[in-house]
Design brief:
Layout: H1 2-30, E1 43-47, H2 55-65, E2 69-73, E3 88-92, H3 99-110, E4 114-118, H4 127-137, E5 139-144, E6 149-153, E7 170-171, E8 174-178, E9 184-189, E10 196-201, E11 204-207, H5 219-237, H6 305-335, H7 339-344, E12 348-349, E13 359-360, H8 361-380, H9 384-399, E14 413-418, H10 420-426, H11 429-441, E15 446-453, E16 456-457, H12 476-486, E17 490-496, H13 503-509, H14 518-522, H15 550-566, E18 571-575, H16 594-604, H17 616-645, E19 658-663, H18 668-675, H19 679-685, E20 690-693, H20 700-711, E21 720-721, E22 724-726, H21 732-744, E23 749-753, H22 760-770, H23 786-806, H24 814-836, H25 840-860, H26 862-867, H27 869-893
Parallel strand pairs: 1-2, 1-3, 3-4, 4-11, 14-15, 14-23, 15-17, 17-18, 18-19, 19-20, 20-21, 22-23
Antiparallel strand pairs: 5-8, 6-7, 6-9, 9-10, 10-11, 12-13, 15-16
Helix pairs in contact: 1-5, 2-5, 3-4, 6-8, 6-9, 6-21, 6-23, 8-9, 11-12, 15-17, 23-24, 23-27, 24-25, 25-27
Length: 895
């Protein structure tokens, strides 16, 4: 009996203790200031390199909230214990986590931890990290909103943790995408599609804006949401534990102070003396597009409606690309008389399983169509693992059906970037000759040779202060021009425009990592700065010139003039023709060079360093001013260099300089805000000939999503678009798949980054599918012979149509077929005449004939639009390519 009484007393004491804890928590969260807070902090706040500049705003809000907290330095986190033993972890605007940190976070949460995050959390991390964060948060940052929007509740009846004032106001944030069935949308944006603004699951809350920044939201709203999130997570976990199991209190309980600010841009320190921590790899600067269609084998994680549609669509598109490639190969074989042998040599897929059937192309495609058709049903039945298994197996089977041993390429730009590292390793003209032999055999016809990199030239210059120290005893530019022309390839000098140095290159040279490059070292007044006085923005690795500085512009123009007049290069490609990456909504801004500040102040009476993004009119003027510096420089380069190359007005197209730009495929408004790169303007003005968007992606669907807006754009004038494909980390057949997509879209070619990743497997496939053909007439280059290219490409189209009609794959009446063939021949004749004799009258007649044919084409192919919509769209795209080649030729020949 006594034992029972003692036990009863212990129970009463325990319950009283729990009630006391709840009472303290209530006071902590509901009563300000902090005098009523519990002695032990319940919150850890993560400080990273990315939110350093926002830290003052973050800490002010935390202090106003009144909750005790401790600070964790992200750089020190390597294990679960390093996240600490507090029940709630706050990640404000942390965009980069390492795989080890993400795995440690998962372990920490599995031990009872709760996570609150804000902004594009983890968005710059590796694909596996992003996938893990999606799982932990049950959601992810989708995209930034263009304008400020109102937050409102997602439902009429709000959960109890949201019943407080100040949660709903105007915010500039982004759409949060719920990732699984357990996620709950707590608040939405008051826009037409009501995208999620706040998403929760059992152990996390994701706020869809950058917390702690005045340009994103008010302090009152930020505090209200963090208070509500803490209320939710602490109340939910208070009955089970006070600290997280397995953690150690590794952070100070004192209120954090703002870190020391770098030098003010009002009086920036000389760049050479600048001291800073070594920056991580600048992922965003290289536009590592790794957001992809991740399909994990055997995973039974639910597949939502949008993902289901994407999976089905990608299988159908891949079937279309495989069939399109085979049709192109058959048409090319018919052109050279090899159709009979081609029909006998069907590509086969041999299973690794003993005794399994060997499937031919038709069987694989038929099976793929069945899988694509049945995929929605599997997903509806919640058989997610099987759906993924079938999808992956079908994709692999289809990839293996590409006709990679037969020629299928048309006349197109086949460009590759020949990078500095590969040039250095070549070591001599003889070593470089081996590289050009490989490229020529693979059918590459245009080489972008890295000529100016990090402020160094790869040739002995009379303008630049220093040749690259890694180049000794030979002139790679002179050698490359000779080697390219011997192999009937074009050589374009690839130059860094406004990026003046590179910490990565300094490391290779074993010099001070903060060395700004030879040009800025000689002319520190030419440097550009961010709003804190850093020449290299936080998280990046390159100092930049000030594009508003007239001395910088004259130096670069003299350097480019030296290249195009002293060497017989065919073109010049401008890279880094922009400012470094910024994010005004996160108070990361750039462009405060000495000349830029003086000029803007003269124009407006305001020093731009005193303007904030919240001052919309002034900030817009400042953004336009910086954008105009880039725009006007491109125009200056175009006009001055073209005149130097062709002083007379009757210069032939074969002698004209081709000007290209390597650019980012971000949406136009976002790109102007973040890097001040408005290349649509350069295209419309006719300043450039080739736009090469860096549409780098790890899979074909992502590549298409990046490239499609610019391919479909009507804002590019007569400029040719040449999408870039990054070979790094791409499987060989994956690279070929992206290449086939390019050939099915209305563009004139592609560019591969870079020779450093051009392996022997790619060499073999390219040699077979696009290698040089020994024929009486050379294959035309679109940038040099646009009219002849149009005629040759149209002839290839006609061969495809003839094959399809001959095989009776579409049902057309005899009269319709005859009319179609007759009109197709009329177009071919007009194109041939224009190619042989370019003139305004021939161009006008060809355009009229082509337009009339395009108008009738859909009616002729009515059955094909139903039977094979992908192939029909490919044909329409190729007719558009021919139309664009005519526009380009008209401008270049001044017809």
């Amino acid at each position: 009996m006594k034992n029972q009484d003692e036990c009863h007393k212990k129970i009463i004491k325990t319950r009283f203790f729990i009630l006391s804890i709840k009472f303290l928590i209530f006071n902590l969260l509901s009563i300000l200031p902090a005098t009523a807070a519990a002695e032990e902090p319940i919150l850890s706040v993560v400080q990273s390199q990315e939110n350093t500049q926002q830290w003052t705003g973050i800490t002010k809000r935390l202090q106003t909230l009144g909750a005790k907290y401790c600070v964790i330095n992200l750089a020190n986190v390597r294990s679960a214990a390093d996240w600490g033993d507090r029940r709630v972890l706050f990640l404000p605007n942390v965009e980069t986590l390492t795989p080890a940190q993400a795995i440690a976070l998962e372990e920490w949460m599995s031990n009872g931890g709760n996570l609150v995050a804000s902004g594009p959390v983890g968005s710059l991390s590796a694909p596996g990290v992003r996938q893990l964060l999606r799982s932990l948060l049950g959601s992810y940052w989708g995209f930034g909103l263009n304008n400020t929007q109102q937050i409102k509740p997602s439902k009429t009846k709000m959960p109890s943790w949201m019943n407080q004032n100040g949660l709903f106001g105007q915010v500039h944030g982004g759409a949060v995408i719920p990732n699984d069935a357990t996620s709950q949308t707590a608040a939405v944006w008051n826009a037409q599609d009501n995208a999620a603004a706040v998403v929760t699951n059992e152990r996390s809350t994701l706020l869809g804006w950058r917390w702690g920044t005045d340009v994103a939201s008010t302090a009152e709203l930020d505090i209200a949401w963090l208070k509500a999130a803490l209320n939710r997570h602490v109340t939910a976990s208070s009955s089970s534990r006070n600290k997280v199991k397995g953690g150690s209190p590794n952070c100070s309980t004192s209120i954090a102070t703002s870190p020391a600010s770098p030098a003010s841009p009002a009086s920036p320190a000389p760049v050479v003396e600048r001291s800073r921590n070594t920056a991580p790899p600048e992922t965003i600067d290289q536009l590592e597009q790794k957001v992809r269609l991740d399909v994990v084998p055997n995973s039974n994680v639910p597949i939502d409606k949008n993902e289901a549609i994407a999976l089905q669509q990608e299988l159908e598109n891949l079937i279309g690309r495989v069939e399109s490639a085979h049709l192109a190969a058959s048409a090319d074989a018919a052109n050279v008389g090899n159709l009979q042998s081609l029909n006998k040599e069907e590509t086969q897929l041999a299973s690794t399983r003993p005794g399994a059937l060997i499937l031919n192309k038709e069987q694989v495609i038929a099976q793929a169509r069945i899988v694509a058709k049945n995929l929605p049903q599997l997903i509806a039945q919640k058989n997610y693992a099987l759906a993924r298994q079938q999808w992956l197996a079908t994709k692999t089977n289809l990839w293996q059906q590409f006709p990679i041993n037969q020629r299928l390429a048309q006349a197109e730009i086949r460009a590759v970037w020949l990078d500095r590292g590969t040039i250095v390793r070549a070591g001599s003209k003889q070593g470089l000759a081996q590289i050009f032999d490989r490229l020529a055999q693979a059918g590459i016809n245009t080489v972008f040779l890295e000529t100016v990199n990090a402020g160094y030239t790869i040739y002995p210059s009379k303008v630049a202060p220093q040749e690259n120290p890694l180049i000794r005893g030979w002139n790679p530019l002179a050698a490359a021009v000779e080697l390219a022309h011997e192999r009937k390839m074009e050589l374009h000098a690839w130059v860094w425009a406004f990026a003046a140095g590179n910490q990565g290159h300094n490391e290779i040279l074993k010099i001070n990592p903060n060395y700004p490059g030879p040009v800025l070292a000689a002319h520190p007044d030419w440097a550009n700065y961010d709003q804190l006085g850093n020449s290299i923005p936080v998280g990046q690795t390159k100092p930049f010139f000030d594009p508003a500085n007239p001395e910088v512009r004259q130096y670069l123009l003299r350097l480019y003039e030296e290249i195009v007049t002293q060497y017989d290069v065919d073109g010049l490609q401008l890279d880094y023709i922009r400012y470094p990456f910024q994010d005004p909504s996160a108070n990361r801004t750039y462009g405060y060079g000495k000349a830029a500040r003086a000029q803007f102040q003269q124009l407006t009476g305001v020093d731009p360093v005193k303007i904030s993004p919240s001052q919309k009119d002034l900030w817009q003027q400042w953004t336009e001013f910086r954008t105009q510096q880039i725009d006007s420089f491109v125009t200056q380069v175009s006009q001055q260099l073209r005149k130097k190359r062709c002083p007379t007005t009757n210069c032939s197209l074969s002698k004209q300089l081709i000007l290209s730009v390597a650019v980012f495929p971000l949406p136009e408004s976002e790109r102007i805000q973040k890097i001040q790169q408005h290349w649509e303007v350069w295209a419309r003005r006719g300043d450039i000939d080739l736009i090469v968007p860096m549409t780098y992606a790890q899979d074909t669907p992502r590549f298409q999503r990046l490239a499609q807006p610019w391919i479909a754009s009507t804002q590019l004038g007569s400029t040719l678009l040449v999408p870039g494909i990054r070979l790094l980390s791409l499987p060989t057949v994956g690279a070929f798949d992206q290449l086939q997509l390019v050939r099915d879209l209305p563009v004139s070619g592609y560019a591969l980054f870079a020779v450093d990743n051009f392996n022997s497997e790619l060499q073999k496939i390219f040699s077979s599918t696009q290698g040089k053909v020994q024929s009486a007439t050379d294959e035309p280059l679109p940038q040099r012979q646009p009219f002849k290219t149009a005629a040759v490409r149209y002839a290839a189209l006609q061969r495809e149509w003839q094959l399809v009609l001959k095989n009776d794959q579409q049902r057309m009446s005899t009269t319709t077929i005859a009319d179609f063939h007759n009109q197709a021949k009329v177009v071919q004749k007009a194109l041939d005449q224009l190619a042989a004799s370019p003139s305004s009258s021939n161009l006008l007649a060809t355009r009229a004939t082509l337009t009339r044919f395009q108008f009738q084409f859909r009616a002729w192919m009515r059955q094909q639009t139903t039977d094979n919509p992908y192939q029909f769209k490919v044909w329409e795209n190729r007719l558009v390519t021919i139309e664009r080649l005519l526009r380009y030729g008209e401008r270049r020949l001044d017809l």
